[in-house]
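Our collaborator T.R. sent over the components below with a one-line note: 'Predict the complex.' Nothing else. No constraints on interfaces, no templates requested, no preferences about which chain binds where. So this is a plain run: every listed entity goes in together, and whatever single assembly comes back becomes the starting point for the next discussion.
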Amino acid sequence: MPTQDIRTIVDAIYRAESSRVLATLVRLLGDFDRAEEAMHEAFAAAVEQWATAGVPENPRAWLVSTGRFKTIDALRRQTRFAESMPDLARWQSTEPPDDLELDEPRFCDDQLRLIFTCCHPALAPATQVALTLREVCGLTTEEVARAFLTAPATIAQRIVRGKAKIRDARIPYEVPSLADLPERLSSVLAVIYLVFNEGYSASSGPAINRTDLSSEAIRLGRMLFELCPDPEVAGLLALMLLHDSRRLARVSPGGDLILLDEQNRGLWNREQIAEGRALVNRALSTLGFGVHAIQAAIAALHAEAPAAAETDWRQIVALYDVLLQLTPSPVVELNRAVAVAMRDGPESGLQLVDAILDRGDLAEYHLAHAARADFCRRLGKIAEARSGYTRALALAEQEPERRFLQRRLRELG
Amino acid sequence: MKYLLLIYTDEASWTPAAREQCVADSTQLCHELHTRGQYLDASPLHPAAAATSVRVRGGKKLITDGPFVETTEQLGGYFLIDVANLDEAIQIAARIPGAAKGTVEVRPLIELPGLPTTTDAAL
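Returned assembly:
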């Protein structure tokens, strides 16, 4: 086969398989850097050898075996000079990976291990995100840096430090025990949601990169759901799909934010909505659903309404009540107040928001003041509305949100 | 893998009864770790007021009263354990009574070959 064709095939396999090959190599070699090096050597060998020998039946297993062999071989040659004997003995004592060990469930296990290790709570959240994007999603350091508008050197340093902590503090390469699973899973979900939100609500930077981040988060969510079909994983995946379904409708061609009730619902992605709704139903019918599933159920109710005026606010308020019980917070209370205002009128909403603000909560949160201003506007209390929007504008930091608040102020006259 | 678990709490927050309970619970934890082969050493420390800090500068000893840094939570004791990985260390740290009042810092040890062991010292 011509070398050019082989390169194309290997490139395609790299994109599809590299994170799985790496995950298994980390288990076999016990070290991220060694595993990465082994993987690159294996892919280089593939380009050379497949041209004459043809593409193997199971390329993934071939790549793992080759990478592992090359590392052990290199180490064996080094041992004459270096003190890496204990490592070598350890790897050789583990059974060689025959075909049985490289079956599909084993690969899935390894990938799940990799996710849990990268999202270990002993690592700083920013490190968890960088490591996950780099090691699990296979993004390059430059791609991660671009997505977070950070210098590549900063991301590279974060990744190096993260790997060093994994090695030195011996963060295990394991799926957590059942007792720890809920806590550890929530740490993984937090990383995925952070990546999604960075892509979804970021205000600055080239838009295309940010979209990539949301897609990457959804891809991660799908991967995790396949590996670990927990109701909260389903809930988070549904939540991301339902939010993302409105992507085209929530920003005007000029880059301005369009609120839910003013969006062109014809632009919503029906396929994503259908998938999200199915996942929500599945999550809610399982014991053990949590905050993500409830939030997704709320997003699903919005997605189901043919027009803003036909939204089922009664049910949305009921879901916020459940959410408040699961996770009491002033922000959830604020969202509930907005839903109550839609159900019962702005006067009820105003009372609830004032109660939150009177307690001293959310005094510095721009959306609380924006919501209050909005209720006042609808009640005809123009002066109060103006001071509310002004306060919100002083606190808001995202450009599209600031433009939205400025527009509201202009509209008040 | 060896880990040093450093227990930081606000010394002033302990009542005599709470301290007694802490000692009893910690002792039990030590015995439990010992039966699992994970125990190396553990001890409470006298209050930070009993601390003396020593620095040598230009060959001269500088002795000062008090701990290395004055903080709101003070080092009050430690566990030295030998476990498989950080998750096991965290699990034990979470069971130390001080973790419920203050903070337990988990520090992996760098294991140097060629250091004398306790058995050597006894000989």
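Summary for T.R.: Residues 3-100 of chain A form one domain.
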